[in-house]
Amino acid sequence: MNAYRHSYAKELGEKAERLAEAFFMNKGYHVLERNYRVRCGEIDLILEDRSRIIFVEVKSRVNAKYGLPQEAITYHKKHQIIRVAKWYLQ
């Protein structure tokens, strides 16, 4: 990926994360963490709603050429999210 496309993808991802955060805040969720990183991985948003903690991985696409955003959550990524969530909850 060239520098321009990398910069554009990073900017798009950050915008998607801000939109997701605003969406959840409008629904009454409280943001506990943004871009929470530990040695085993990273989670974009950690939210709280009354007695629940929600872990959010934000994915965005400009078009469907490379698939839908939810299709980007691979088996490996699912397990990485679970590991990071367990780490956070310890």
Put the structure in a nutshell.
With 90 residues, this protein is of the alpha+beta class. The chain has two helices and three strands.
Task: Explain the layout of strands and helices.
Layout: H1 3-26, E1 30-38, E2 41-49, E3 52-56, H2 75-89
Antiparallel strand pairs: 1-2, 2-3
Structure description:
The structure is a single chain. The protein has helices at 3-26, 75-89, and strands at residues 30-38, 41-49, 52-56. It has 90 residues and is α+β, with helices and mostly antiparallel strands. It has one domain: Trna Endonuclease, Chain: A, domain 1, CATH 3.40.1350. A three-stranded antiparallel beta sheet has the order 1-2-3. A hairpin with a 2-residue loop joins strand 1 (30-38) and strand 2 (41-49). The mean pLDDT is 90.
Number of domains: 1
The helix content is 40-55%
CATH topology term: Trna Endonuclease, Chain: A, domain 1
* SSE-based structural type: alpha+beta
What's the mean pLDDT score?
A: 90
Which CATH-level-2 architecture?
Answer: 3-Layer(aba) Sandwich
| Number of beta strands | 3
Q: Show unreliable segments.
A: none
Query: Cα distance, first to last residue?
Result: 37 Å
Strand sequence of the main sheet, in spatial order?
1-2-3
**Integer-rounded radius of gyration:** 14 Å
Q: Total helix count?
A: 2
Tags for this entry?
90 residues; alpha+beta; Trna Endonuclease, Chain: A, domain 1; 3-stranded antiparallel sheet; 2 helices
